[in-house]
């Protein structure tokens, strides 16, 4: 895929709207093609997504409407389409944002793109491997000792729950990419991030409470922990980025002299 042409320093609102329209169209087309491919593998995809439920012998999937099996297959196909199209979606979004930067800063797209993609998948994998098994045990069996009940979960509600969690964590895991980009272009410094880490932790807690897809405390803790860890990692990576930028500037000055 070719990069979008460089935008001029000043663009009209209509020009920005046209560029955003291109981003959305490319993304929608990519998801549609991915969903068509995902339809053939939707049954295998659902089995994979249902792995966290396999260890809960007391919980059973049920179907409540005649249309539910078909709708579940469509939802899983759509999720597969998003996964397949994710590289295109992330490329399109960042390539729309970065042209607003200086010409020598647009090259960061080739660092941001793979990092952003990897972190998104890392967030989704974290959900499947750690968050879902723990959340399911807590949410499905909370208060079950008070009343004798048997947990049943519809396939449709389960897929919605998994998709919401995976999407949320995938977006939360983009924090290092954003912070390191801001450090690299000189808007913030790692020293400032380190100085205000207490405030950052407070903001992360607020975001976890407000944006958590579930109201339970455990899910919020599982959001806060990785996000703050990624924040600390961003600080240390930021120091490395600043040192390299300083060395590069000194080298350019020596070449000029």
Compact summary:
It is built from 10 helices and 2 strands, in the order αααβααβααααα. With 257 residues, the chain is an all-alpha fold. The protein has 2 domains: 1-171, no CATH class; 174-257, no CATH class.
Can you describe this structure?
- The chain has helices spanning 13-40, 42-49, 51-54, 68-97, 109-141, 155-172, 175-184, 190-195, 197-211, 217-256; strands at residues 60-62, 152-154.
- By secondary structure, the protein is mainly alpha-helical.
- The protein folds into two domains: 1-171, no CATH class; 174-257, no CATH class.
- A two-stranded parallel ribbon has the order 1-2.
- Helix 1 packs antiparallel against helix 4 (68-97), helix 2 crosses helix 4 and helix 5 crosses helix 6.
- The longest helix has 40 residues, at 217-256.
- The two termini are 40 Å apart.
- The relative contact order is 0.10.
- The model is unreliable at 5-10 (pLDDT under 50).
């Amino acid at each position: 895929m070719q990069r979008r042409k460089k935008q001029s320093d000043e663009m009209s609102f209509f020009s920005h709207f046209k560029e955003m329209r291109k981003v959305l169209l490319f993304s929608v087309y990519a998801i549609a093609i991915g969903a068509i491919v995902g339809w053939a593998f939707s049954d295998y995809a659902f089995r994979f997504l249902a792995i966290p439920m396999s260890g809960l012998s007391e919980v059973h999937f049920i179907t409540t409407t005649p249309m539910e099996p078909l709708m579940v297959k469509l939802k899983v196909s759509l999720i597969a389409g998003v996964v397949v199209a994710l590289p295109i979606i992330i490329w399109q979004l960042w390539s729309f944002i970065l042209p607003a930067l200086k010409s020598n800063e647009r090259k960061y797209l080739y660092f941001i793109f793979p990092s952003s993609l990897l972190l998104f998948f890392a967030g989704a994998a974290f959900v499947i491997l750690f968050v879902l098994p723990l959340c399911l045990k807590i949410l499905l069996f909370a208060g079950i000792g008070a009343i004798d009940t048997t947990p049943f979960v519809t396939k449709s509600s389960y897929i919605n729950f998994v998709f919401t969690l995976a999407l949320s964590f995938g977006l939360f895991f983009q924090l290092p990419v954003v912070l390191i980009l801001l450090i690299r272009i000189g808007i913030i410094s790692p020293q400032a991030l380190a100085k205000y880490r207490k405030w950052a932790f407070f903001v992360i807690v607020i975001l976890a409470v407000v944006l958590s897809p579930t109201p339970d405390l455990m899910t919020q803790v599982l959001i806060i922990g990785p996000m703050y860890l990624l924040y600390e990692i961003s600080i240390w990576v930021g120091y490395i980025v600043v040192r390299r930028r300083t060395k590069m500037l000194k080298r350019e000055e020596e070449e000029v002299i």
